[in-house]
Amino acid sequence: xxxxxxxxxxxxxxxxxxxxxxxxxxxxxxxxxxxxxxxxxxxxxxxxxxxxxxxxxxxxxxxxxxxxxxxxxxxxxxxxxxxxxxxxxxxxxxxxxxxxxxxxxxxxxxxxx
Length: 113
Hints:
Layout lengths: L1 H19 L11 H12 L18 H10 L1 H6 L17 H12 L6
Helix pairs in contact: 2-5
């Protein structure tokens, strides 16, 4: 029974780790619904929802996010420019993988997929 319980726990831990892994591979299609929107939800909606809309930006819908992405504003706000810390998210920083997800999604045409 103890061995079985250990196996079950190790399997659960492995699937949680895999679920949290970022996979920014330019050779595959980046999914707005599965990757970009969850990233935005975790890191941006605290300040950029319809209630708060910091700096006039709301990121609750594809169209709002796509507009910011197409203008360059989204990507420019999450990367370090000239050695300065990224402007967003406030009080934190996206991982390199997360910024690459945004970059590749934009390069792939800001698809609503």
